Amino acid sequence: MTHPVDSAVAQAHTDVMGLFRRHPAGLDEVCRAVRDRLTAMPVLDPHDPRTWNSYALITADVQTLLGYLREAGVASGESEHFRALLIRVLYYLYESEKAKTGVLLAELVHSDWQAQLGEVHADTLNATSRLAACLYAQGEPKRARPLFERVHQQQASQFGDDDPATLRAACNLGACLTQLGEYGAAFLLNEDTVRRCEQQLGEDHETTILATENLAGTLFGLERHRTALTLYQDIHQRRRRASGENSLLTLNAEASIAITLHTLGDYETARAVNAGLLPRFERVGGKDHSGTKHTHSRLVKNLRALGRYEEAEEVHGGRPKYGSSTPEGGHGALAPRHRGT
User: Fold this and answer.
1) Per-residue pLDDT for the chain (341 aa), expressed as one digit of tens each?
2) Which of 226, 177, 170, 230 is nearest to 194 (CA)?
3) Which domains does the chain have, with CATH numbers?
4) Which of 28, 99, 313, 321 is the most exposed place for a label (fewest CB within 10 A)?
5) Quick one: CA dihedral 216, 217, 221, 225, positive or negative?
6) How would you write the chain as a 3-class SS string?
7) Please, what is the end-to-end C-alpha distance for the chain in angstroms?
8) CA-CA distance, 53 to 222, in Å (whole number)?
């Protein structure tokens, strides 16, 4: 589904273009005026797919401004509000599966803020985490791991093991260890993180749900599939309560159930779940979203496993009655996604 650009974002873009074209002051003053105009926009949630077209326009303006800031000798970390905007843009690039652009932008921002603010400044650590997340999403968990470890160590050193920021960092590191196949270390970390989150934040807190999801992913990797399925089913219910029936978080949790059911040999139940998921993923994330593509691929695999080859080829080859025409997905169709943030 295509969502319109927010009117306030569209107006800010027009104003920014005007400032760059007509502002009579020096480049440094122009840059600060543009920066202030961008940070005056309403704060949009980068996790919500309905904001992604708006963030695409914001990202283009931010990238242009960063180039001019460097030319003018104005520090990108000078304004707290601009730093917050940049972090939101990096979240958007991660969530909307534009990790390649996210890595390039995060590397630039991280380098600048390390020099300007110091390595342990909260915003520098946020930029480090965003860089690691985009590397992870780009399929480079080995490069992401030392960055996730650094953030976790710094947060624990400054605030303690039970601080919400430390627990969030532990979730990211746990997801990365699972992706790397280091299931023993991942299990110990994820199990401890779940325990701490439940004690400090409560069962339905977003970080607790994320930690539990990562623990389920590790159990899946350890081939403890029935235990993983029980956790995924519980996570799905919690996601529904916290985020709604059709949020991407809820849909991803339901997808993990379908993957685990197929692995356990319950192909018919997995097929039913995927058939229901497919049009919902396409409606929320669009036909090119990985969730849509992977669900399509899983549905084909379910049907083939059931011996329903004609239906499988219909789904694989054309627009099926299940509601999608996307081609078969990649590795994400075969195993649950290990979630970072």
Assistant:
1) 578 999 999 999 999 999 988 777 789 999 999 999 999 999 999 999 999 999 999 999 999 999 999 999 999 999 999 999 999 999 999 999 999 999 999 999 999 999 999 999 999 999 999 999 999 999 999 999 999 999 999 999 999 999 999 999 999 999 999 999 999 999 999 999 999 999 999 999 999 999 999 999 999 999 999 999 999 999 999 999 999 999 999 999 999 999 999 999 999 999 999 999 999 999 999 999 999 999 999 999 999 999 999 999 988 775 444 333 322 222 334 566 655 66
2) 170
3) 1-138 (1.25.40), 142-217 (no CATH), 224-341 (1.25.40.10)
4) 321
5) positive
6) CCCCCCHHHHHHHHHHHHHHHHCCCCHHHHHHHHHHHHHCCCCCCCCCHHHHHHHHHHHHHHHHHHHHHHHHCCCCCCCHHHHHHHHHHHHHHHHCCCHHHHHHHHHHHHHHHHHHHCCCCHHHHHHHHHHHHHHHHCCCHHHHHHHHHHHHHHHHHHHCCCCHHHHHHHHHHHHHHHHCCCHHHHHHHHHHHHHHHHHHCCCCCHHHHHHHHHHHHHHHHCCCHHHHHHHHHHHHHHHHHHHCCCCHHHHHHHHHHHHHHHHCCCHHHHHHHHHHHHHHHHHHHCCCCHHHHHHHHHHHHHHHHCCCHHHHHHHHHCCCCCCCCCCCCCHHHCCCCCCCC
7) 24
8) 39
Q: Which structure tokens are listed for 203?
A: 């069962």
